[in-house]
Write a structure and sequence with these properties.
Length: about 180
């Protein structure tokens, strides 16, 4: 496979992973996989939570594709797809675990409108502690926070955390 075509496959994979992540988050993690994901909607005690197992689970296809493409003589596109999955995982880790949840120390503060929007959308996702009634399941693409707040209000605030407004960044939901 030519380098330009490989890079195109890589970029397409990274983009497709956002759709996969949305679907997995909405219908697996907030569905039958809630038994692991529930730990992510509760206060974390220590460095790890059960939800972290999803990183290992979702890394398996990337590892298999990279191994097959590089070592086992599979179609060369497998290498590019595996690399795209791994790249999305790295982007997700940086955004979700480092920037939003601050699981590693950082002084980064979102300044661009895009970064502020996706951080706030993810925080709005976390004001709901239950399996149902949530909003904003994507990681790199998110509706405007005003739309998410309106949707939470329309749903009667079902499952919304009872902490302080400062904890969630959604002052208007508790009014």
């Amino acid at each position: 496979m030519s380098w330009p075509l490989g890079i195109l496959v890589f970029i397409a994979t990274v983009i497709a992973m956002e759709a996969f992540a949305y679907a997995a988050h909405r219908w697996i993690m907030h569905g039958p996989g809630w038994f692991l994901h529930a730990s992510h909607h509760a206060p974390r005690h220590g460095n790890w939570e059960w939800n972290d197992l999803y990183a290992a689970i979702f890394a398996v296809p990337s590892i298999v594709l990279l191994l097959g493409g590089v070592q086992l003589g599979w179609w060369a596109g497998c290498t590019w797809i595996g690399a795209g999955i791994a790249a999305y995982g790295a982007i997700y880790f940086g955004f979700h675990d480092v920037i939003v949840h601050r699981r590693l120390p950082t002084r980064y503060l979102p300044k661009s409108a895009y970064m502020k929007r996706i951080v706030q959308a993810h925080r709005l996702h976390h004001v709901v502690e239950t399996k149902d009634g949530n909003v904003s399941f994507g990681f790199l693409v998110a509706p405007p926070p005003e739309a998410l707040k309106a949707e939470l209000k329309r749903r009667g605030r079902a499952g919304v955390r009872r902490g302080t407004a400062a904890d969630s960044g959604v002052e208007s939901l508790r009014a």
